[in-house]
Amino acid sequence: MCDWEEFLFTCGHSQFRLKCYCHQARNHPLHRCRRVKKLRCIWEQPGPCEGCRAAYAQQ
Question: With the C-alpha atoms ordered 47, 52, 57, 59, is the resulting torsion angle positive or negative?
Fold first, then answer.
């Protein structure tokens, strides 16, 4: 089970990022994991995501 982190933005979007590979994915040539994703941390961010920031900048 690979470890993941979730980042929650004020715009309502969220983003998942890989924290570390599990033992099986580390040994797989393409780093494929067929197990459950384990959410380790949820981080609340103080602003909007990159996509929303770019959209706000264009307005």
Answer: negative
